[in-house]
Design goal:
mainly alpha
Length: about 80
């Protein structure tokens, strides 16, 4: 549910507080963390580069891969 809610908010370009992303990046479910990292890449906001770099250390390979992809999208 959390993953789908974030996906919908990003698609609508709704403003999302940084605290929401911080919370989701610490979620126990890897798919929620992966969605949060994906959303940050879609936003392409340079203020999230550090967060995405930290996500490269996530224990889940899919989250790390999405973080790398998101950073590449931001250039």
């Amino acid at each position: 549910m959390r993953k789908q809610a974030l996906h919908a908010l990003v698609r609508m370009r709704a403003p999302i507080a940084p605290e929401i992303f911080a919370s989701m990046l610490k979620d126990k479910a890897p798919d929620v963390r992966q969605q949060a990292v994906s959303a940050l890449g879609q936003l392409r906001d340079p203020k999230y580069v550090g967060v995405l770099v930290d996500a490269l250390k996530d224990p889940n390979a899919d989250v790390r891969q999405q973080a790398a992809f998101s950073l590449a999208r931001m250039r």
